[in-house]
Amino acid sequence: MGSYNSQYEEYYRNLRKRREGNGFNYFNKKSSSPASGYIGRRIIRDLIGTTLLFFIVIICKLVVTPQTQAVYNYSKKIVNENYDYKQAYTKIKSLNLQGIEEEATDFIEKMKAKVTGGKTIKERIENQFQMPVEGKVSSPYGYREDPIDKSKKFHEGIDIDVKENTEVKAVFNGKVKDAGEDKVLGKYVLIDHGEGVETKYGHLNSLSVQKGKEVKKGDIIGKSGNTGKSTGPHLHFELLYMGENKNPQNYIAIK
Known about the structure:
Blueprint: H1 6-21, H2 34-62, H3 66-80, H4 85-94, H5 97-116, H6 121-128, E1 136-139, E2 142-145, E3 152-155, E4 158-161, E5 167-169, E6 174-182, E7 186-194, E8 197-207, E9 214-215, E10 220-224, E11 235-241, E12 244-246
Antiparallel strand pairs: 1-4, 2-3, 4-11, 5-10, 6-7, 6-9, 7-8, 8-10, 8-11, 11-12
Helix pairs in contact: 2-3, 2-5
């Protein structure tokens, strides 16, 4: 997909400085307290929701039609009326906030693509990327019970059930951003595909690439295993866009 745009280069340069200055280990971010991670995610989601609501109100003020006027008046009515906020909070907690965030991101990407005449990141990934292995998804993306300590944690990728030493392939052209071993992911590979898109492969039994190596779609980057925090042979696979984890199953077809 080519090299980074200038805006992404600045983003990653600042991100790297913050991580180095704080002694942050990218692959140990799960070691932070569950409370701090939860609060951080809630703040991000609240900001996204507030921003979307702000734009909706602005559009309703600028584009005056019977429909937008109705939305604007209804918004004022909600604010002015005395609601059972405890009941409202219960309903909000039951919402799939992760799904709403994904939909908001997709909407913004589609609007940007219409303006530039290009394709969204999702469309590019769907058309160009392949799965690293063939197998059944044994653990999906999202909150789950940790298979080892049984606590509720956010699973930042998907687990694909494959036999040990199954060849793991690069999902698309890119450059190996990092490769090594971590106490949680075991042996891993992180590939930078450009334009803010990265993929991560964990619990590998062996590595076939080193940091800095250029890879092509379909190149073997290692073999699956059971290293790190794992209860059995499988491949842990993550998809990231601009440093944020995305659900791979929403972008890449699982065979």
